[in-house]
Amino acid sequence: MSVDDDSRLAALYDAHGPSVWRYVVHLTGDPAAADDIVQEALLLAWRSPHILAQEPASTRSWMFTVARNLVIDEARSARRRHEIGVAEMPERVQHDATDALFESLLVEEALVTLSLEHRAVIVHAYYGGCSIAEVARRLGVPEGTVKSRLHYGLRALRLALQEKGVTR
Fold first, then answer.
1. Do 164 and 109 form a contact (C-beta atoms < 8 A)?
2. I need a surface site. Which of 24, 28, 71, 158 has the fewest CB within 10 A?
3. CA 76 to CA 63: how far, in whole Å?
């Protein structure tokens, strides 16, 4: 930076520094932040020789625009939002499984009330994920019998659950 650039930068500050500072204080409400913003704007002017080559009076709108953009950038930054980096991620929140546990206990109690044949078909089909043909093969009964037992078993299971206070 030459002596001429130094004098132009000083002239730029003298001409616009105080008014830009007041503008930034108005935007942020923080005089210390305004000092930093004005200093950053001047640093950007120093890094942009074409700005210093202009007359200080012609750069007023440039200074206000740069200051406003710096205020916006600071408001969006992590420091402003008080975000703190951590070495490891916090544990994930796990939903309460109490309701699911109670429901499974109710279903288990209701299954116990079914006949062994109905219970076996329901357990294989719904909990084992087996098709009708697979259930028939595993239990050694015809597919029609599996379908019938599944139909009547689910009906009995629904009634057993209703007796325990479970509604649709």
1. yes
2. 158
3. 20
Delimit the domains of the chain by residue range.
3-76, 98-163
**Cα–Cα distance between 86 and 92 in angstroms, integer?**
15
Q: Span 3-76: which CATH code?
A: 1.10.1740
Distance separating alpha carbons of residues 139 and 145, to the nearest angstrom = 10
In the structure encoding, which two tokens stand for residue 6, read together? Answer: 């130094």
Instruction: Report d(CA 10, CA 16) in Å as an integer.
Output: 10
User: DSSP characters for the chain?
Assistant: --HHHHHHHHHHHHHHHHHHHHHHHHHHS-HHHHHHHHHHHHHHHHH-HHHHHS-GGGGHHHHHHHHHHHHHHHHHSTTTTT----SSPPPPP----HHHHHHHHHHHHHHHTS-HHHHHHHIIIIIS---HHHHHHHHTS-HHHHHHHHHHHHHHHHHHHHHTT---
pTM higher than 0.90 for the full model?
no
Supply the pLDDT for residue 63.
86
The class of domain 98-163 in CATH terms is: mainly alpha
pLDDT (average), residues 144-151: 95
Tell me the average pLDDT across 121-133.
92
